[in-house]
Design goal:
Residues 204-233 are annotated as: Disordered. The protein has 233 residues and is an alpha/beta fold. The protein is 39% helix and 15% strand. The structure holds one DNA strand of 23 nucleotides.
DNA sequence: TGCCAGGCCCTCTTTAGGGCCTT
């Protein structure tokens, strides 16, 4: 069964190379397109959170002060992921934090990252914006919590990934759009898409509501609740 | 308060510049 882990970080800024650190990580583990496990934790990296980041995410310095050390959280996260390939929305961002924070924890980070922004740009050129929130609204995907919190964003990215995989099967006849195929698709030049997806690769069929119903990836699992580690009952 | 980076992508391009996307 194909496993994919969808990850999202909340951070103090946009660049770990400029000293920014992760403040929260969430990972949604899927198997065969269904959510089978979740991991979420705030983390204390010993840095202060800028006010505008608190305004954006709702994560405060007081919340971080009570959180476990970043190195311990990242080691747990790495154990949770194992060798499962990762997916993120704007994966370059999350991959940089994944590598930077795991390096601080002394843990290797060889995981390949597929990117739902790149996949969305290739599959849905008609969408006016490829921001996660815009795509969720466009496809009428469920929202499970406050945007810009790690677990809620990871859940939304998981729903978007399910939509992408559904459309690859239904519209393009891809029997198994696994992580390897997603990596190949996101690297594929737009002019070469028809070779990978067929002659109708860039032909969309109208508004999202006119398309066939897509089963949600979280339909069979319990909704998220506060805590450090989430497991479906 | 707004900027900080990095990779992708488009175009009035390719010897470049700027928008998008993430926090």
């Amino acid at each position: 069964m194909t496993r994919i882990a969808v990850i999202d970080f909340e951070t103090t800024g946009i660049s770990p190379s400029m000293g920014d650190r992760a403040t929260e990580v969430a990972i949604v583990l899927t198997e065969g397109g269904r959510v089978v496990d979740r991991f979420q934790s705030l983390m204390n990296a010993g840095v202060r959170i800028p006010a505008f980041i608190t305004q954006l995410t709702g994560i405060t310095n007081a919340m971080i002060a009570e959180a476990p050390p970043a190195e311990a959280v990242m080691a747990d996260a790495a154990r949770f992921v194992g060798d499962t390939p990762l997916v993120a929305h704007n994966a370059g961002f999350d991959q940089r934090y994944w590598r930077a924070e795991l390096a601080r924890a002394g843990v290797p980070a060889p995981h390949p990252f597929a990117c739902t922004v790149l996949l969305s740009r290739r599959l849905y050129p008609e969408v006016p914006s490829h921001k996660l929130g815009t795509l969720v609204d466009w496809f009428q995907l469920p929202r499970t919590g406050r945007a810009h919190r790690a677990l809620a964003d990871a859940e939304m990215a998981t729903e978007l990934l399910a939509r992408i995989q559904h459309d690859l099967r239904a519209r393009h006849g891809v029997a198994d759009p696994d992580h390897g195929f997603l990596m190949k698709l996101q690297r594929c030049a737009k002019k070469a898409l028809s070779k990978l997806l067929g002659p109708g690769a860039l032909v969309h069929n109208g508004s999202p509501s006119s398309q066939s119903a897509v089963p949600h990836s979280r339909d069979t699992v319990e909704p998220a609740s506060p805590g450090h580690r989430y497991r479906p009952l």
